[in-house]
Amino acid sequence: MSRGARQLVGDSAEAREDTHQISRFAEVFRPREWEEVHRWVKSAFVEGAQGKEDPFVAHLKDGTALRLRHTAISDRKDCSLILERTDDLPCARELHEVESELQQVLEWLDEGVVVFDENDRIRAKNARFLQILGLSTDDGASVQCLEDLIRRTANSAREPEKFAARWQAFAEGAGERVREELAMKGPLPQVIERSTRAIVGGNGRKLGRVEVYREMSAQRMFQSRMMQTEKLAAIGQHVTGIVHELSNPLTTILVNAQRLVLQDGDGISATLSQNILEESERATAILRQLLVLSRESLPERRLVSLNDLVDRTMELQRLALSGSHLRLIVEKQEGLPLIEGDYGQLQQVLMNLLQNAQQAIAYSGTGSTIGVRTIFGGSRRVTLEVWDDGPGIPGVIQARIFDPFFTTKPPGVGTGLGLAIVLGFVRQHGGTVTLLSPPHGGARFVVELPVAPAVGMQFDEKSAALSAGEPPPPAGNFMLEEMPAGKVPRILVLEDEPTVASLIADVLREEGMRVDVLLDGNQALQQADRESYDLAICDLKMPGMDGQRFYQTLLQRQNPLHEHVLFVTGDMVAPRTQEFLERHHLTHVAKPFRMEELSGAVHGMLGKKKAMAAVRASAKAKEA
User: Fold this and answer.
1) Which residues contact 459 (CB under 8 A, 6 or more apart)?
2) Does residue 157 sit in the same domain as residue 84?
3) Tell me: the pLDDT tens digits for 237-250?
4) Number of domains in the chain
5) In terms of pTM, does the model score above 0.70?
6) How far apart are CA 37 and CA 575, in angstroms?
7) Which tens digit of pLDDT belongs to each residue from 492-534?
8) Both 400 and 441 in a single domain?
9) CB under 8 Å to 283, separation ≥6 — which residues?
10) Looking at the predicted structure, is the pLDDT value of residue 229 above 60?
11) Alpha-carbon dihedral sign for residues 365, 369, 374, 377
């Protein structure tokens, strides 16, 4: 024993050494470990087995733990050992805990990380690293070193030979931090940013290196989208103005078509009138869906019929696919219970899934059919399925399809946000999204949503109609009773669009009401000060004095007419408009409207006024 070894074993060996009583090295340690220590020492003399059980931990008689290692100078005749106190080394349990903590930290990172030792063996890696390079979990378990990684991934690079040589050079030069980009063609085209840095011990010795991988496609796409934000915002405002202007002539066409159809008549004229009505109603439905999709309001929860949502959305999709070879199949289960949610968000979910299927088929050239199915299988959850017979989704990227900006489509085809939006909206509604994509092709997205609480299994058509973006029933929707003898409702119409103003007046006059029409807000205020009206019908968006200023001026002047204003507007997309109507609890009819919508809102407002007058009269009588 060297002096250091004697200091370690202490009294366990010195007494016997003086009396020549020591016979075996194992007897330095606790008796119950003698046989195990002796067997380990003898293993050094077995040819080909030397060091296989190295190192070994044994305890002295005083409980001190020593780690034993064979040395390189040993031969088959002699066995030389190195003794170390384990107090100076991390114990096996501590090493295990450190490695476990390290692995957990790596798994939480959004970047791909791999740690190599000084001999290019892999010490640790996370799942994100495997995903970025297109490796499955089984592939990851089989790669043990840099050579394994290069062999498994080189063919996924655009230039395999250059890729392999560059990785080797990259590993050899890992001193100071190095950064570079890799162009990959599989499992999908992408650009990866890779950086590395050496891991250095306390004595300056290089222990290995860590490599970090980031996808640049998402970052570059995000930067590209941000650069277009102002342009898109300007375009959005322009489109909103177009939709508003389009709603005026469409309102005129729709209501006049209804009036023609209601007139008794036969023959070609009646048929033509019916065709005009049907097409104008179709155009009105499309315009309203555009308004719902572009609305920037906070999510509004109401009862929604999933079947009705599918019908309206598929109508839009059929228009988008007109002239295409794609075939749409819709299967709806009758008697589907209602769900509670934001109609616009749920429609966006369906639209995104349909668009995703359409682009997958168009880009790959595989498949021709897209299907939508609604199911109620119990357990208080309804199911919406969107499927296609396209190329399907490879298993190596299925875990990433809901990541923002992740896309397998070429530039200009996909944004990488569609499925991320789907997942976000479905989770907000307490639902789940599942992907089923078998190896032979095709993809099926299964969306499960909870049934609305306190709602029976029967289909509520009234609630479904409201959920589709139809104007809500007017506040105080009382049926108009018979007016007192000689009392004819007086209506003031303020509308800057002459055709719409004339149309409203004609409809109400046909119902026996007296109607005054003005095109200017200031003139309407003067008229309201001079005359008494039962109701004012006012457009919100007008040049000069708009509807908001008209209402606020009535309110400031304490004109009783301010309590009886019905707004008509095609500007429901604007947050300012929504906030104004909600803050003052005002009734409105959205353009383009049908004749019965206008008439019903007017009768509801007049009924409300009569009910309010009755309440006030009763209150005065009680006071008297």
Assistant:
1) 305, 307, 334, 335, 336, 337, 338
2) no
3) 666 667 667 888 88
4) 4
5) no
6) 81
7) 999 988 888 998 999 999 888 999 999 998 999 999 999 999 9
8) yes
9) 250, 592
10) no
11) negative
